[in-house]
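Figure 3 (text version): structure tokens given as input.
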């Protein structure tokens, strides 16, 4: 729940920022000189890119949460078998062991979105966020029946 609140607050702050930046871009365009119009258009591009990025990330999170809920309903969410340090952090060797299991599971069933979802969690636990995101994107694509990217 804390992660959802943090995400919502961050998204709201970004939207406010986009509105402020966009209003400055409009003011620059309204000034009417060649240089201010050029800068105004350039400034307006930033919020457009930011809104697109925020939208894509929000879609990704919603789809991943739907997969998690579906997998939970099936009883297929991975059990937390990770050892932790005294401070509560995941033990690196433990994460590597679980990752090896999840990778083997995914190699045995490469077309199963469930195995890719569990592999994404293992990547995340091993602190490999880029690969975790790619594995989750693959799980989402398999679940939706979309063609997979190479």
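Below: residues designed for each position.
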């Amino acid at each position: 729940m804390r992660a959802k609140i943090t995400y919502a607050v961050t998204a709201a702050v970004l939207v406010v920022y986009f509105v402020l930046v966009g209003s400055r871009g409009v003011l620059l365009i309204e000034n009417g000189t060649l240089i201010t119009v050029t800068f105004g258009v350039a400034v307006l591009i930033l919020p457009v890119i930011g809104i697109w990025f925020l939208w894509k990330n929000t879609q990704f999170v919603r789809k991943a949460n739907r997969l998690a809920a579906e997998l939970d309903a099936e009883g297929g969410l991975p059990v937390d078998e990770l050892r932790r340090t005294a401070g509560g952090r995941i033990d690196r060797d433990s994460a590597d062991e679980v990752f090896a299991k999840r990778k083997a599971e995914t190699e045995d069933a490469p077309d199963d979105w469930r195995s890719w979802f569990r592999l994404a969690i293992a990547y995340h636990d091993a602190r490999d966020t880029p690969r975790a995101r790619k594995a989750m994107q693959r799980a989402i694509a398999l679940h939706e029946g979309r063609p997979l990217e190479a």
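The mean pLDDT is 91.
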